[in-house]
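Figure 3 (text version): structure tokens given as input.
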């Protein structure tokens, strides 16, 4: 039709489970919930502090798989920030004027 191309806005969504989660995300969230269920079964919930500590694995895993705009989820945001802060921040120019007037010695 008049050489117009229709490109989907997000082609990766079809590869995700429910359009949001990767298999690793579901495994991480499932393991956090599983650990929380085990702790709920075996720890006496006598105070608010103990209850919050028992619920922490599920809450932390839910935070990590939380979808974020412009990124996939919080795991990706944290890993990208770590990569940016730990890698070299000085970028050397290697374009057309890389030698800055120096000649080749052959």
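Below: residues designed for each position.
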């Amino acid at each position: 039709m008049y050489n117009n191309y229709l490109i989907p806005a997000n082609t990766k969504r079809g590869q995700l489970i429910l359009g949001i989660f990767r298999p690793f995300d579901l495994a991480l969230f499932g393991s956090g919930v599983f650990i929380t269920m085990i702790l709920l079964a075996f720890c006496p919930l006598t105070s608010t502090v103990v209850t919050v500590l028992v619920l922490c694995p599920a809450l932390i895993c839910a935070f990590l798989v939380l979808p974020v705009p412009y990124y996939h989820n919080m795991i990706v945001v944290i890993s990208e920030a770590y990569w940016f802060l730990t890698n070299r921040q000085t970028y050397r120019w290697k374009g057309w004027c890389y030698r800055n007037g120096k000649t080749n010695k052959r």
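The chain has a mean pLDDT of 82.
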